[in-house]
Amino acid sequence: MLGEVLVESEKRPSEPPVFARTGIRVQASLPADQTPEQLAESISARVLEAVPTSALVLQAFTPDSPAGNRMADEADALLEAVRARLPPERLLEETWRAREAGATLVELCVAPGVVLVGSVPAREALSLSPGGRQRMRRSADSPSRAAMKLEEALVNLPFEPGRGEVCVDLGAAPGGWTQRLVARGARVIAVDPAKLMPELARQPRVEHIQESAFAYAPEEPADWLFCDMAWRPIEVAQLLAKWGRRGWASHLVANIKLPMKDKNPILVRVRHILTQEGGWQGLTMRQLYHDRDEVTVTAHKVT
Hints:
The structure is a single chain. This protein is of the alpha/beta class. It has 2 domains: 25-132, THUMP fold (2-Layer Sandwich); 146-300, Rossmann fold (3-Layer(aba) Sandwich), CATH 3.40.50. The chain is built from 8 helices and 11 strands. The strands form 2 sheets. Strands 7-6-5-8-9-11-10 form a 7-stranded mixed sheet, with helices on both faces. A 4-stranded mixed sheet has the order 1-4-3-2, with helices on one face. The protein is elongated and about 65 Å long. The termini are far apart.
């Protein structure tokens, strides 16, 4: 019925699934042959019964498939109909506040022939975007789509690089990630033998080191290490582990390329290298919406 879009998880995964966009506890599976009014009444009643007290963030999405995409208007209409039947004081409009407010994320999956109703505490949610699709806008001056991956990764962190912080960007050219870090007021050491786009090369807060990321050693520790290199994943992981082991950076955001068909054994090795050999703590590993055959890794060092 839903094809490969949704899968049933183990009851309580010990770690967030790497390739899952979103995860909810399904409370109802309702046939879609009802009128929109009947569906909205049934859904709103079930939501209030399942989540009697906390603030609610209500969202709707469709499966990421041609058939699902054609139902986007239907999903939007159902969302508004359910919203109109819930107490306004229970609805939290600022989704970004959901975790700190202790809200519950309620998602309606509108699929061909069925509507799934589910929820998850916002603090446990894999994503706060409908269906886990954190769509980022590509700026007109961005040299590549890579910047959207970084923006999505930073949205999911509790904090991000601030004004005056030192960021090292390994494999920086042509400068998509460096550009977004400079826009936040950070000072960036961009490491890449290739050239940066001219406007970045002229930026006073950008220092371009034209050498291999594998040969570079910082003169002093950085606040953040960023890495988005099209290189073999184990070698990239070993490079990032070296930075962790030597205390060269406090925070890590990296993209690991996975062109191979069987990705999981590589991910197990990457995780081991980063945590056991590199000493990185709080490691997360997710395939974000803007990732392709790759995953985004975040971690930090205890200082």
